[in-house]
Write a structure and sequence with these properties.
11 helices, globular, 8-stranded parallel beta sheet, TIM Barrel, two-stranded antiparallel ribbon, alpha/beta, 278 residues
Length: 278
């Protein structure tokens, strides 16, 4: 398995398995299938509602486990520690490999200070953020002690985030993709550019997309509920895209989200109203 090295020296698999939108009652079985296929990075979140099921499936010593902190009201320091303890208990772990601030809303600075404290205590190996646009990311890292190790953002062939990645690279932040397959939007799985590249290598469109992300140095966490598809998605380390093929995929970028824009006031208001219960 290829890995990336985060800004604090922690190594992280470049290909993992995400459990977003997997029902809790199915999660344990599906995570076991993913582990059998070879995945050693698991990505969940408090907001997904399936941390306990993930915890039942994981052999702690073999994995890199990520979960995420949902939006916390001020004073976020106390709220964040409580949310962290809840996630840790549900996962059945004594520490986390990576803890991400899930959204750039709420008491962001209070949340980050609490995450820094947990990191300094050795309870989290690395801390990071998700869904931060470059301005918010640079503001956060410029005004705090610990630079986020990871920023997990929507990244796929139709929203490639190359400029965002350049900013992250400049500041030592690892880009991670969510929605790498764009949930099939814009006809991704039948796109002629991607299909043609797949035919040239004897690979599926999904494998081409994952290989494209990996060659860009983007950590990716594809989700599937089918064991055969999990194995297919994992089988992307025996071929490489050419420079011309990478350039062809670059032409697919629309520069816009296919889901929601975190800079949209309506999105901020909608997410800000959502609260979790233990």
């Amino acid at each position: 398995m290829e890995t990336v090295t985060l800004n604090n020296g922690v190594t992280m698999p470049i290909l993992g398995f995400g459990v977003f939108q997997i029902p809790p009652e199915d999660t344990e079985r599906i995570v076991n299938d993913a582990l059998a296929a070879g995945y050693r990075l698991l990505d969940t979140a408090a907001a997904y509602g399936n941390e306990e099921a993930v915890g039942r499936a994981i052999p702690r010593e073999e994995l890199f486990v990520t979960t995420k902190l949902w939006i916390q009201d001020a004073p976020a320091e106390q709220n964040t520690e409580r949310a962290f303890e809840t996630s840790l208990r549900k996962l059945g772990l004594d520490h986390l490999d990576l803890y991400l601030m899930h959204q750039p809303f709420g008491d962001v600075y209070g949340q980050w200070r609490a995450m820094e404290a947990l990191h300094h205590e050795g309870r989290i190996r690395a801390i990071g953020v998700a869904n931060f646009y470059p301005d918010r990311l640079v503001d956060l890292l410029s005004n705090n002690d610990v630079t986020p190790a990871v920023n997990q953002i929507e990244t796929h062939p139709f929203f490639q985030r190359t400029a965002d990645q350049d900013v992250m690279r400049e500041h030592g932040v690892q880009i991670q993709s969510w929605g790498g397959f764009a949930e099939g939007k814009n006809g991704l799985f039948t796109n002629p550019v991607l299909s043609g590249i797949g035919e040239a290598h004897g690979k599926s469109v999904a494998q081409v997309v994952l290989r494209w992300l990996i060659q860009r140095g983007v950590v990716t966490i594809p989700k599937s509920v089918r064991a055969e598809r999990m194995a297919e998605n994992f089988d992307v380390f025996d071929f490489a895209l050419t420079d011309d093929e990478m350039a062809s995929i670059a032409t697919l970028d629309t520069g816009a989200s296919l889901f929601f824009d975190h800079r949209d006031p309506a999105v901020a208001g909608q997410l800000g109203k959502r609260r979790l219960t233990d």
